[in-house]
Amino acid sequence: MLDRPDWDSYFMDIVQIVKNRSSCIRRQVGALLVKDHRIITTGYNGAPAGMAHCGDLGGCLRMKMGFAPGTGHEYCRALHAEQNAIMQAAIMGVSISDATLYCTDSPCTLCAKMLIGVGVRRVVFLGEYPDRLAMDLFAEAGIPLERYNPDTRQTERYLSEA
């Protein structure tokens, strides 16, 4: 019998490849929106299409200004991976209601609000982004937030320790 990965492992393997397209100097993130075991869209963090990347402009403005991780987003050129995945669905005219988000990092508050608003029903992530409010918003919306463990290739319901 062929040893095939389960769906969560399969999509988490793919999202690791997607993040390699990121142009962000500070953090590379990949995202997939999946519905009925089919990939709807992918996204990675970086400057909007057609605009210069931070690396082309001499570095990350947020880093130069001394912002801590998770702060100063208004000074960042990049769109988040989740935002790019949502925008791709809009451009293609495809519904992402009831989709699952697979992401290399847990979503920030801004992305959490967008994902809740568009009707994403489950979030699976690998690494934790330090944003307690995002975790609380998902809990309030009743959206399962699951951390993927690459060693066991299993997901566990996630509750932030913050």
Automatic annotation (TrEMBL):
Residues forming the catalytic site: E82
Residue stretches making up the CMP/dCMP-type deaminase domain: 6-156
Residue spans crossing the bilayer: none
GO BP annotations, alphabetical order: pyrimidine nucleotide metabolic process
Annotated residues for binding of Zn(2+): H80, C108, C111
An annotated Gene Ontology molecular function: zinc ion binding
GO cellular component, one term: cytoplasm
The protein's name: dCMP deaminase
Organism per entry: Peptococcus niger
The organism's taxonomic lineage, starting at the top: Bacteria, Bacillati, Bacillota, Clostridia, Eubacteriales
